[in-house]
Write a structure and sequence with these properties.
alpha/beta, seven-stranded mixed sheet, 11 helices, 44% helix, disordered C terminus
Length: 264
């Protein structure tokens, strides 16, 4: 089910419960990856302006953990990987801050923080440990993470080349740092409910929001694809820049039909 929030973005909550949480309007978290061309300062500005008209609180959280290891795992020397990671992280932070500033006077609180800012948060630490535990013990969860890793790095592999164990492990570590916010942002940030918003459906969405057991999102955690309405017509083009960005799977979400399939 699609919600057209205004003239610039369309919203696709993953389940009916996700839609209800969306309508509550307590909080939205917008995750931003370094090196992803989708997140220009103009796009950030539009997102910030749009989000503050719908939610009481808005958080932009950008990934800054394991970025150097990702570069090193795919051919960069350690020195070059560290320099490239530092450059990319500074650039994404700068784009977010610029976009938020240019969005105009905020109608709601906007915070911009890095993933590393939460490493001392006890709830985040607990959720991170749970993610690592399920990676080791839950075959379905691990498979979902493997699919997500391949979407991360597919463009970096040569034809016929398979991802190595070392590369897969770095991807797991990168994702494990992000996944707590898709499981229980309300507890991490002390908000009543939260919507994790991204411009594409992640391969992990079904695992965290639709299956009946294992590691699942909490009842007050939602997921929604939020994307510019124009993307619907252009995203299918192989030359569209978003389809070549360092990001997750470009797959439209499907609306859940039964609330019981929603995470408990």
């Amino acid at each position: 089910m699609t919600i057209t929030a205004d003239a610039s973005f369309e919203v696709l909550p993953f389940t009916r419960t996700c839609r209800n949480i969306w309508e509550d309007g307590d909080h939205v978290l917008i995750g931003v990856s370094p090196g992803n061309s989708y997140f220009s300062s103009e796009r950030i500005s539009n997102l910030a302006r749009w989000a503050t008209t719908r939610f009481a609180q808005v958080d932009f959280v950008y990934a800054d953990l394991h970025v150097d290891r990702m570069f090193a795992a795919f051919g960069y020397t350690q020195e070059h990987a560290e320099k490239r990671a530092t450059k990319e992280i500074k650039a994404v932070k700068r784009r977010i801050l610029k976009g938020v500033e240019e969005s105009g006077p905020p109608l709601a609180e906007i915070r911009v923080r890095a993933l590393s800012d939460f490493q001392t948060n006890p709830v985040y630490q607990l959720l991170h440990r749970r993610v690592l535990h399920f990676l080791e013990t839950d075959d379905e969860f691990r498979k979902g993470c493997e699919e997500m890793a391949l979407h991360f790095v597919g463009s970096k592999l040569q034809d016929g080349e398979s991802i190595t164990d070392a590369q897969l492990q770095v991807c797991f570590d990168y994702m494990a740092a992000e996944l707590p916010f898709f499981i229980d942002t309300p507890s991490i940030l002390d908000v009543p409910s939260s919507v994790a918003a991204y411009h594409v459906k992640m391969p992990m969405t079904d695992v965290l929001f639709a299956r009946g057991g294992g590691l699942r999102a909490t009842r007050n955690q939602a997921y929604a694809v939020v994307r510019p309405e124009s993307d619907e017509m252009t995203r299918s083009s192989p030359n569209h820049p978003d389809n070549n960005a360092h990001t997750h799977a470009h797959t439209a979400p499907t609306e859940g039909t039964v609330d019981e399939r929603r995470a408990a």
